[in-house]
Design a protein that fits this description.
184 residues
Length: 184
């Protein structure tokens, strides 16, 4: 990572009543339960059916390896009570090109409380300000009005639509591409 400042250990971020921290093995059951939600399955790339083994891998070796290899930065998001409310992070990073993509899901019980807006803003600010990425992207299915609204609320610019850009559950989907730069 030539011009980026990548910490040796994953930081903990704070965002208006939310804590974004590294995953722990004890988070696996909460992740498993959240990923049974049809909306998470619909709008993300989590495996379906989502098994406990998937969650155990995600909160353990998958996220730890991604951090060390600088391919992703996955954060558990908890509320003031310590309850898991979502998964947020930089899901794809290309340090050579200076681009990272924000990706996330919000647990069903935590929706409509501003979790996505607050946590996505925190991850984006960290990526731009502290790590030094010159560009952060947020891609959302064109029909995913909630995620597209989050991008708009936290200052991302809609750049266009990538047609048939991702495999969906039954057919390929168009993705709206949004970006933020440090100067935005």
């Amino acid at each position: 990572m030539t011009d980026l400042t990548w910490p040796s250990t994953q930081p903990t971020l704070h965002a208006d009543g939310l804590t974004l921290r590294p995953w722990r093995p004890s988070d696996a059951v909460a992740v498993y339960e959240a990923c049974q939600d049809p909306e998470i399955v619909r709008w993300t790339t989590v495996p379906s059916p989502y098994l406990l083994e998937h969650a155990e891998s995600y909160v353990g070796p998958m996220s730890a390896t991604a951090w060390v290899e600088k391919t992703a930065a996955n954060f558990a998001v908890t509320d003031d009570d310590g309850a898991l409310v979502g998964s947020f992070g930089l899901v794809r990073m290309n340090p050579g090109q200076g681009v990272a993509e924000v990706g996330y899901w919000v647990a069903p019980a935590a929706r409509r409380r501003g979790v996505a807006r607050r946590a996505a803003a925190a991850v984006t600010e960290w990526a731009l300000r502290d790590v030094g990425f010159p560009r952060v992207e947020l891609l959302a299915a064109v029909d995913n009005a909630g995620s597209r609204r989050v991008a708009e609320l936290i200052g991302f610019t809609l750049e266009g639509v990538l047609r048939s850009a991702a495999p969906g559950r039954t057919t390929r989907v168009d993705l709206a591409i949004h970006s933020r730069l440090p100067t935005d």
